[in-house]
Amino acid sequence: MRLLSLVLVWAADLLGAKRHQFLSEVAHLGATIEALLSPPQKAVLHSGLFENEKRFSSLTADGLPSPDVQILGMFDSGTNLLQSYLQGAFPTVNVATHCHLGGVWKHSPPQILEQHNMTAYITQKNGLATGKTKVLAMVRSPFAQLASWRETPYDLKYCTDRSDLEWLVGVCLFSRGLDMDLEGADMDKHCDQRLSNVTNSQRSCEELCTAIYPEYAFASTVDVWNQYVQGYTRLAHERDVMLIKYEDLVLFPRKVLREQIAPFLGQTPPNDADVHVFLPPQKDHGHLTTRGQAIEALQKRSYMSKFQANEKVAVCSRLAPSVLEKLGYDDCKRDGYEVGNMVGAMDCDNSQSTDFGGSILVTPEPFCAGEPLPMIQSGPTMQDEINDADAAFKHDASELDRLSRGQEAAAE
After folding, report:
1. Quick check: 295 and 250 in contact, CB under 8 A?
2. Do residues 10 and 127 both lie within one domain?
3. Which among 15, 34, 166, 331 is most buried, taking Cβ atoms within 10 Å?
4. Same domain assignment for residues 230 and 292
5. Dist. CA 292–CA 278, nearest whole Å
6. What are 217's strand-pairing partners?
7. Do 302 and 143 meet the contact criterion of CB atoms below 8 Å apart?
8. How many angstroms separate the CA atoms of 366 and 378, rounded?
9. What is the pLDDT of residues 29-88, one digit of tens each?
10. Do 59 and 180 belong to one domain?
């Protein structure tokens, strides 16, 4: 393998101006070969919740954790992989993934961190409230993300454990509190009892967060993906936020760390030789995937085979075109499915689908699937998509503010 690398570098020198492009392709090929030929390994986690807290060096005057960066991401979007790389490449950077570490639960909808919503969830002592903490948000191809939720739904099990198309198009309600069988006030504010043996974790959680695991409602399971990614993008208008694509982190981890994350965090870019590329899974729960398996799935798009034709139609019609365009996710277009003609649509045939109860509605202005569909402009330019996205983000913010004020008035 070493000899092959030397030969390829020599060949690259002969190519002159095209050397960079050639080496980039070689790096991709080398990573693929390395991953696919590597034998299965037992997961070796860089650290976990407890180790991360023990090594916190930056504390507030009150002795509370003061993180440098908060990781956000949907379930199974690569947040554990990102954490392992951060802690390996930047050992002095303090990372928050939960409230007791100075931030918020990493799988929380990003809308809770917008200025008009923030005080309902975190206190002024939280690093995200002070503006000191930067945010890295993981995003993943919608079809791959949905396929992973179907197999290992985590707290979305009440959304995905349904038959036919209902698991994709039915209203999706979720809360971590539901998974813990909590009710009422216990669900509104609950600091994870598993952390009771960690020094100051309970105190940190209580002093840094106002509400830990409320219940959220989305027009559909597909729209969970829309609202999270749109939320991350909209959040970038208010604070330091960088979106990291799962696919890039799997295929080119060294490049992502060196060219994206290091400058964003103000850290010295790590040398490639100092970055350990993780081959085994970087978590010990849920759907475990090695790097070789992840690369093969991306190259073959094997996640698409998990969906029937009618499911692909349902997914593509509910995905926001501007978001797909910005991130370069083109599975719908490649397979010839129309995108975005039912964004925000709910399945109102099921009488329970539209019962939000006391949940926080994240989807702005959802509508019943049987109603007239909004017109979609054909053949928009990239600038049209950007303008539409910006308008949608402002509308979402206004709608969430209105809903929040309505809920406060009702509570009074």
Report:
1. yes
2. no
3. 331
4. yes
5. 10
6. 173, 361
7. no
8. 22
9. 444 444 444 433 333 333 333 344 444 556 777 778 889 999 999 999 999 999 999 999
10. yes
What DSSP character marks residue 347?
-
Question: Does residue 43 fall inside a structural domain?
Answer: no
**42 occurs within a structural domain:** no
124 shares a domain with 209: yes
What is the tens place of the pLDDT at every residue in 158-170?
899 998 899 999 9
Taking each helix axis as running N to C, give the angle between helix 142-151 and helix 309-318, from 0 to 180 degrees, rounded to the nearest 10.
120
Task: Spell out the residues 6+ positions from residue 278 whose beta carbon is closer than 8 angstroms to its own.
Answer: 81, 84, 85, 253, 291
Chain segment 132-168, per-residue pLDDT in tens? 899 999 999 999 999 999 998 888 988 999 988 999 9
Question: Is there a contact between 173 and 215 (Cβ–Cβ < 8 Å)?
Answer: yes
Number of Cβ within 10 Å of residue 286's Cβ equals 15
Structural domains of the chain, count: 2
| Domain of residue 210, residue span | 49-411
Whether residue 75 sits in one domain with residue 12: no
- Residue 44 in any domain: the answer is no
| pLDDT at residue 409 is higher than 80 | no
* pTM for the whole structure: 0.73
User: What CA–CA distance (Å, rounded) separates 216 from 173?
Assistant: 6
- CB neighbours of 351 closer than 8 A, spacing ≥ 6? none
The structure tokens listed for 395 are 């509308």
Tell whether the torsion through CA atoms of 80, 242, 339 and 293 is positive or negative. negative
| Residue showing tokens 């409320």 | 214
The reply to whether 331 and 236 lie within a common domain is: yes
Neighbours of 83 (CB within 10 A): 26
Residue 120: how many other CB atoms lie within 10 Å: 14
Given a contact cutoff of 8 angstroms between Cβ atoms, the answer to whether 138 and 82 are in contact is yes
Same domain, 275 and 383: yes
H or E stretch including 316?
Answer: helix 309-318
